[in-house]
Amino acid sequence: MDKKKTQSKKELILKAAEEVFMANGYEATKTTQIAERAGVTHAMLHYYFQTKENIFRKIYEDKINMLKDPIVALVENKEMELPQRIDTIIETHFEFLKANPTLPHFVISEMNNNPHLIETMKENIGEVMGESYKKLQNEIDEYVAQGIINPITALDLLLDIVSLNVSAFVMLPIIKSVVSDKDEQNAILEQRKKEIKETINRRIIKTENKA
Amino acid sequence: MDKKKTQSKKELILKAAEEVFMANGYEATKTTQIAERAGVTHAMLHYYFQTKENIFRKIYEDKINMLKDPIVALVENKEMELPQRIDTIIETHFEFLKANPTLPHFVISEMNNNPHLIETMKENIGEVMGESYKKLQNEIDEYVAQGIINPITALDLLLDIVSLNVSAFVMLPIIKSVVSDKDEQNAILEQRKKEIKETINRRIIKTENKA
DNA sequence: GCAATGTCTAACAAGTTTGTTAAACAAAAT
DNA sequence: ATTTTGTTTAACAAACTTGTTAGACATTGC
Predict the structure, then answer these.
(1) What distance in Å separates the CA atoms of residue B195 and residue A203, rounded to the nearest whole number?
(2) Strand C contact at CB of residue A32, distance < 7 A
(3) How far lies B177's CA from each of A148, B182, B194, in Å?
(4) Which of B160, B171, B153, B165 is nearest to B93 (CA)?
(5) Cα dihedral B134/B140/B145/B149 (nearest 10)
(6) Per-residue model confidence as pLDDT tens digits over B107-126
(7) CA-to-CA distance for A133 and A71, rounded, in angstroms?
(8) What is the 3-state secondary structure (H, E, C) of B9-65?
């Protein structure tokens, strides 16, 4: 058998499935639609994946895993001082979202509709998150003790950053409907990024240490 | 004909539709499911609303209109000073979301899946928002000129508040899966509210004016 | 009372959607 | 070569979904 052709068929289906699932979500996606886009008969994706649910889980788990890396990057890279590193985290996370703008809505949406998918997420990235979280909290506490930053829990800080960043992209469809120009849309996003950094910076940096 | 019974049938359908649509979204909701929950044959909701789309729009427009009031409240009530009023806005908006925790995800989700629904939103609350926005920007500018608060666009301020508040509830399903105790969940929400107020306060208040 | 109108049900219909299966076709293994 | 295994298609089927319709039943106005 021709391995390349086989792989490419399965991959074609996965790629098509990813596109359609990401754009429309689980319920609105029809297996025939995926097959059409992949250029195969819909029996093919039952041959490879048996059920619609199976294809979906493959995609979903891939996407969930994508969330892990930017978060792990948060605690490594101890070269920079914490405040500047947090700035970099916002930058990295924001750019990651820019490269995957439909990811947040997709994940949130599916977690809301299928609460058991939250378990999938916890299984996949739970321990890693837990570790990173503890390390970050310890670091924060040190900086607080030194009087450099304001007290804050690592959870609140992470939620602040993620909330602000993610929302910028979740609300993108609204922005797009108001301004159609691509450059202008990008300018708005850049402005948001700047504002988010400013907001987080003011939240953590002690006022006495600011210019 | 018995008006009360008629109203109650139609209302039963609308109530059931609201529950199911809010919980599952447009695509995942089946008309038979709505009929079942309302305790009527599914022909009934075609009799009253003709199509699934029609029932949905009724629900959707109602929900969109609910968003308007808390925002309008932002500019009225000139008794308080701006900074304290912003604090109240966060409080009001947060409590509104607490009373309607599934609303944000529902609206965002449907706007993402059906971009034309954004038009519906703009038609319903567009002008009101525009007016409130201008008034707020003028007020901010005054306070900035007096050296009381840091420069910020009204859009950024609103987006910061809405992003942080909404995210707290959009991510609620995750919190619920981690902590099952209701009181504990509430404590987490209260902590988030406090943190959001703190974050926004530090963002806008000039450092010189702070204790 | 009875005609007109509104409400409701059961049955049906057309289309879609997920999934199966038999059989054709291709490749690999012996 | 031929058996075995893997891939692909076309046709089918069962279930579900949205929507219709004919007629029963109730209510109202006259």
Answers:
(1) 10
(2) yes
(3) 35, 11, 22
(4) B165
(5) -160
(6) 988 988 888 888 888 888 88
(7) 9
(8) HHHHHHHHHHHHHHHHHHHHCCHHHHHHHHCCCHHHHHHHHCCHHHHHHHHHHHHHH
Q: What is the DSSP letter of A40?
A: S
Whether nucleic acid strand D comes within 7 Å of the CB of A14, the answer is: no
Is the distance from CB of B186 to CB of A123 less than 8 angstroms? Answer: no
Q: Quick check: A167 and B174 CB within 8 A?
A: no
**Quick one: pLDDT at residue B210?**
46
pLDDT of A186-203, one tens digit each?
A: 999 999 999 999 999 999
Report the protein residue whose CA lies nearest the C1' of nucleotide C11. B43
Query: Among the residues of A50-81, which ranges form H helices?
Result: 52-75
CA–CA separation, A106 vs A75, rounded Å? 26
Q: Which residue has the higher pLDDT, A22 or B178?
A: A22
**Residue A78, pLDDT score:** 78
